Amino acid sequence: MRVDPVIALMDEIERAYMALAEARDVDDLRATRSELARIATLHQRLIATEPTTVIGAACLLREAASLLPQSQALSCSDRLREVAEHFDEGRRRVEDLIWLRRTAEALRAGASNDLAHAAADLIRLAAKGASRPVLLYRAVSLPVVLSTKRPRQAPAITCVP
Fold first, then answer.
1. What global pTM score does this model have?
2. Domain co-membership, 80 together with 113
3. How far apart are CA 13 and CA 29, in angstroms?
């Protein structure tokens, strides 16, 4: 099974932030600029990446909650984190998916800055990814016969003249 692209991107973003902190610690201006550009590029890729699992959708919801401005964060971020916890537990509820879709539409319509638009896009992608059907692959194995009995042998046939 392939890794969710959102999870892979979030891991790469986390490593970029660690590299940025190291570059700032040693006052390396060139490395700091490079890491900031890398982080910006990774965030652009994240906004365009649809999750393939519910866990990937949960990562997007947490990221969206962190992007919301303070005025909207008070009303939405707690609920976004709550839905993300449901997704982490493997629970996809219809109410959550409906709320996510409506929230994304409302943020998009009333957003006044780029971060709110980005949060709306992340929420929309998370809802789309979480509503994908889950395919389970189960292999059917043949039962293993563990028998200590010896197989029956046919009686020996003897010819008597």
1. 0.75
2. yes
3. 19
